[in-house]
Amino acid sequence: MKKLLLIICFTTLLTACSLPFDNGADEAAPGIPGTSGNEDILYGQGAAGTTFLLIGIDSRGEAHSRSDAILAARYMPKEKEIKLISLMRDSYVEIPGTGKRAKLNHAYYKGGKELLKETVEANFGLKIDYTAIIDFKGFIAAADLIAPEGLELEVSKEMAEDMKLDMQPGKQTLHGEELLSYVRFRHDGESDFGRVERQQEVLAALKNKLTERFSSIEGVLDFPAVVLEAAQYVETDMDADEAVPLAVSYLLNSAENVQTLRIPVSDSFENKLVEEAGAVLEIDLEENKQAIQQFIGEKQ
Questions:
Q1: What's the DSSP call for residue 37?
Q2: Is the dihedral angle over the CA atoms 154, 158, 159, 165 positive or is it negative?
Q3: Is residue 36 classed exposed, middle or buried when 0-12, 13-18 and 19+ CB atoms within 10 A define those classes?
Q4: Residues with Cβ < 8 Å from 192, sequence gap 6 or more?
Q5: φ/ψ (deg, to 5) at 295
Q6: Is the sign of the CA dihedral 222, 48, 258, 165 positive or negative?
Q7: What tens digit of pLDDT does each residue of 54-93 get?
Q8: Alpha carbons 245 and 12: distance in angstroms, whole number
Q9: Spatial distance between the Cα atoms of 104 and 197, rounded to a whole number of angstroms
Q10: In terms of C-beta distances under 8 Å and separation of at least 24 residues, what long-range contacts does 16-25 make, across chains too?
Q11: Are 273 and 248 within 8 A, CB to CB?
Q12: From residue 233, how far is each of 61, 70, 95, 134, 182 by CA, in Å?
């Protein structure tokens, strides 16, 4: 079913690419019955923005995994923007249905993607449209698939030693497994805060590589094979009738700008030690809700 969905997406993408678009026109889009105008094809049904909850999990065969990375990615086709919001996993929040507070990543451990989604929405006022989950092995494979030549990133001395890399500090080209170590590294003065910045940095770089790869005719022709291979590494709750217009929209309105935000924002939290949870971030929820709404351009 997943492969069929991806083939449908690709066919629709090619069809849409062959259509003549005029951004100022109001008439129905040629060749696609039932559309009221070009905006339906250009932007899909998520013209105002579609928000994904991206969940990176530390899956090593256990019955319950913890979410190692939690990000909300908002794709805004009209603005050609992607807005990435990193939600720090140690944020001390209320878990819906439990009457208790815990670290944010504990929600995934207790109730999977649905409870994590509910927790994010309840605490941060951020409406999530879809979820996408990838584990460590999937990240390595997907990174090598999207950027087979690797990504050039700044590697510190501490990082090179921790990652057991045979390389000097400075700009280095990292591949899949090295990229995973890079985004997970936390053994310096910045700890999880530095890790969040590196997660955002790598996601933005992979987005750019993906855009470059499929910006040519040769790249578009290579698209189905890449998508079919990448699909096995990602679990999502998006259906075919939702994926097709969004895929068309992204191809026609590839994001030119990636903006990032870290939650909690500066000066809105305290480091605390809680008996039942250990080291946590006690955050000012209202201040962070406002920061999110301002960042994505929505009024509360």
A1: S
A2: positive
A3: exposed
A4: 88, 89, 90, 186
A5: -65, -45
A6: negative
A7: 998 876 545 566 788 899 989 887 887 889 899 999 999 9
A8: 8
A9: 18
A10: 16/41, 16/248, 16/251, 16/252, 17/220, 17/251, 17/252, 21/252
A11: no
A12: 16, 17, 28, 6, 20
Measured CA to CA, the distance from residue 69 to residue 58 in angstroms comes to 9
* Contact status, residue 73 vs residue 251, Cβ threshold 8 Å: no
pLDDT above 60 for 160: yes
Selection from 139, 194, 185 nearest residue 162 by Cα: 185
Tell me the average pLDDT of the chain. Answer: 78
Position with higher pLDDT, 187 vs 296: 296
Q: Which of 71, 78, 14, 52 is nearest to 238 (CA)?
A: 52
Question: What is the spatial distance between Cα 218 and Cα 112, in angstroms, rounded to a whole number?
Answer: 39
- What tens digit of pLDDT does each residue of 195-218 get? 888 888 998 888 888 778 777 777
pTM, full prediction: 0.75
User: β-strand 269-274 against 278-283: which pairing, if any?
Assistant: antiparallel
3-state SS, residue 257 = strand
Q: The domain 2-22+38-296: what is its CATH number?
A: 3.40.630.190
Token digits for 33? Answer: 């019955």
**Cβ contacts of residue 297 below 8 Å, gap of 6+?**
none
Please report the beta strands in the chain, taking only residues with DSSP state E, as ranges in sequence order: 50-58, 66-76, 81-87, 92-95, 100-103, 130-135, 151-155, 170-174, 235-236, 257-263, 269-274, 278-283
Q: What are phi and psi of 93, to 5 degrees?
A: -130, 165
DSSP, collapsed to helix, strand or coil, labels residue 9 as helix
pLDDT score, position 103: 96
For residue 125, how many other CB atoms are within 10 A of its CB?
Answer: 16
Give the span between the Cα atoms of 228 and 241, in whole angstroms: 18
Structure token pair of residue 96: 């819906």
